[in-house]
From TrEMBL, chains A, B:
Name used for this protein in its record: Cell division control protein 3
Keywords of this entry: Cell cycle, Cell division, GTP-binding, Nucleotide-binding
Residue window of the full protein shown: 77 to 357 of 467
Keyword Magnesium tagged: no
Similarity comment text for this entry: Belongs to the TRAFAC class TrmE-Era-EngA-EngB-Septin-like GTPase superfamily. Septin GTPase family.
Any one of the GO CC terms: cell cortex
GO BP term, example: cell division
Record localization: Bud neck
Domain Septin-type G: 1-281
Native source organism of the sequence: [Candida] railenensis
């Protein structure tokens, strides 16, 4: 099996940590990546980065329950990190398009037996936990990519927000998404799905945008259990505890439940739309 | 007594909440201020705000232990909220300069008996708790204002960070500040200060940048105490608990200990520097 996930959002929102938490492996390097910051140039006004958004691809082969997963994680260091972010969405859109183009070119060859699917199957967009609503850059980016890949918005570092604040924040985000006509990933409901399947799908999708917390560190809770989480002087937040955050639901969506559907929707709908538009120009 | 505090940083960093917590009064309105967002204009690329940074002044008269404090809080809604923030520091610098100009003009009149001091005595800059380091906009803004007002950087919503992360983050911020030659407020040590005073000053200032948490809500702790704080499913963070955050230290600096020194340094050093430069042009 294989999966290509793109991950974007401002620096320091726990994106690397969350990917590592999802797959329980050190796939990306969290924390301050010096090389991603090296385009900062000191000017007379202070710091002016060259407004560079890089695209980085990290490939890993994972095995779980005897099943191999060839995972490709595409990250976007530099996004949102400049004083002027007007063009920061462009390298991201270019990357998505280039992967479509590669597939288009491969599928039009005579020998097509071994096409490698490098298209983006899922786009995780990380929203800063301000508690207010989407900001201008969030909306700009999401509108640029929502018709090219399966968009899954997440609320980053949601341990910053109380349960009440998460509820209100999600309402405002969903209102913004509706107002801006932004399409987020929606699994198909099949007529022959049983009630249990429909209910399971509903329970996952009603959490969107997913309020996530990530951690690969093991910590001890007050009642002595060892869990993946973050330890504060006032308590321990548990990543795998559904009372604490939506991590489990996001993992069910991405890996357990809708992995094939993410790829099918990319291949049958999003790619076909891109191909039709490109060939009819 | 009187005090003029300017507060700046990206939207949703808990600035309004922190001011209300410092003075235990609903001085500013926290949360999503619709009127601050009304300059968002929907363009072909998605949302393009008119890049407007507004300057808002809120005045209140507070009384504590029979002492009256005439407080003026100057906020900067819109700062950092656009896709292109290249000029977002300008309205802030203009405001500081205008207040210097007003004083200069008042002090050169014949009748100077009732000059109202509207100069900025303290500038609280809120840093996003990414855990990484200062970003380009932080550095740009701080370099523009650090020689015009007493700069006090704070780490916003520090309950996002574990104790270890706060320690590392503070080191990186202080390194950035040193590298960029940014001056932060530093109280004078007087030769005749006793050891206790010097030690008290040191204990406060070594916390800079202050890792703050704000809340005016009262919540109940696990052991039954009622405190100002934030209640999460995994625990209660207490604003006035020095094991949880640096709030007490910041309040000691601003209100209890260095209020007069902040004003004196503004009047005797920062204003005089501005006046000398202006008159010699
Ligand atoms: N509060 C909180 N901090 C987190 C979470 N996930 C990661 N962090 C911390 O945030 C910092 C940045 O994480 P990183 O994964 O490098 O963020 P990235 O720049 O978006 O890839 C690190 O100090 C992490 O330990 C989370 O869910 N909650
Ligand atoms: N985690 C956390 N949230 C906070 C803190 N202070 C305020 N908030 C929440 O952050 C949101 C924005 O606060 P607000 O004061 O309006 O931020 P402002 O836009 O910077 O003035 C509100 O939901 C607050 O309850 C804090 O210290 N920690």
């Amino acid at each position: 099996s294989f999966l290509n996930i793109m991950v974007a959002g401002a620096s320091g929102l726990g994106k690397a940590t969350l990917i590592n938490t999802l797959f329980n492996r050190e796939i990306l390097t969290p924390g301050f990546n010096e090389e991603d910051e090296e385009d900062a140039v000191d000017g007379p006004n202070g710091l002016h980065k060259k407004n560079v958004v890089k695209i980085k691809t990290t490939e890993s082969t994972l095995e779980e329950d005897g099943v191999k997963l060839k995972l490709s994680v595409i990250t976007t260091p530099g996004f949102g990190g400049s004083v002027n972010n007007s063009d920061s969405w462009k390298p991201i859109v270019d990357e998505i398009n280039q992967r479509f183009d590669k597939y288009l070119e491969a599928e039009s060859r005579i020998n097509r037996s071994t096409i490698e699917d490098q298209r983006i199957h899922a786009f995780l967009y990380f929203i800063e936990p301000t508690g207010h609503s989407l900001n201008a850059l969030d909306i700009t980016l999401m509108k640029q990519i929502h018709e090219k890949c399966n968009l899954i918005p997440v609320i980053a570092k949601s341990d910053t927000l109380t349960d009440e604040e998460i509820y209100d924040f999600k309402q405002r985000i969903l209102n913004d998404i509706k107002f801006q006509n932004i399409k987020t990933f929606k699994p198909l409901d099949y007529d022959n799905d049983d009630d249990e399947t429909l209910s399971y799908t509903k329970q996952i999708m009603e959490k969107l945008p997913f309020a996530v917390v990530g951690s690969t560190s093991e910590v001890r809770t007050a009642d002595g259990r060892v869990v993946r989480g973050r330890s504060y002087p006032w308590g321990v937040i548990e990543v795998d505890n559904e009372q604490h955050c939506d991590f489990i639901k996001l993992r069910q969506l991405l890996i357990k439940r809708f992995l094939e559907e993410l790829k099918e929707h990319t291949a049958n709908v999003l790619y076909e739309k891109y191909r039709a538009e490109k060939l009819s120009r």
